[in-house]
Amino acid sequence: MKIWVDADACPKVIKEILFRVAQRCKIEVILVANQYIRTPPSLYIKTIQVVAGFDVADNKIVQELSEKDLVITADIPLAYEVIGKGGVALNPRGQFYTRENIEGHLARRNFMEELRSGGVQTGGPPPINQGDRQAFSNQLDRFLAKNKIV
Asked: Which of 13, 4, 137, 138 has the alpha carbon at shortest distance from 70?
């Protein structure tokens, strides 16, 4: 099993948690981005830099992931594809996207996209806070324990 990271938009604090997990659990963490991503030296942390373009990093993750791999992303369409391919998707706030909830997430995302395209100012998500970091870390630990990786 590998952990894939949609790294262009992944908060730094979440990447730091993943770097520690890679070392502690000896699990491969692969960051995919269209820009250079600084990582600590490690046998378990890898980066893939893709060309800039719409969904290029997302497409690379979907192309490379295997069933049961974990993908860290806040991108709902990417999470939808990951689930469809048998992977597991976790967002940086510690919420798993599942077969049961992904359709609702997609509907909300599409509705907000329609509002924005119509000129409505919807604002963005709030910054990651300590509670989000803790929720992410806890869910990641539970996932790793469930899959006998810790």
From this structure: 4
pTM of the predicted model, to two decimals? 0.89
- 37-47 pLDDT tens trace: 999 999 999 99
For the chain, helix, strand, coil in percent to 5 are 45, 15, 40
Q: Which of 53-57, 128-132, 145-149 reaches the highest mean pLDDT?
A: 128-132
* Phi, psi values for residue 37, rounded to 5°: -120, 125
Backbone region of residue 89 per phi and psi (left: phi > 0; alpha: psi in -120 to 50; beta: other values)? beta
Q: For 85-132, what is the HEC assignment? A: CCCEEECCCCCEECCCCHHHHHHHHHHHHHHHHCCCCCCCCCCCCHHH
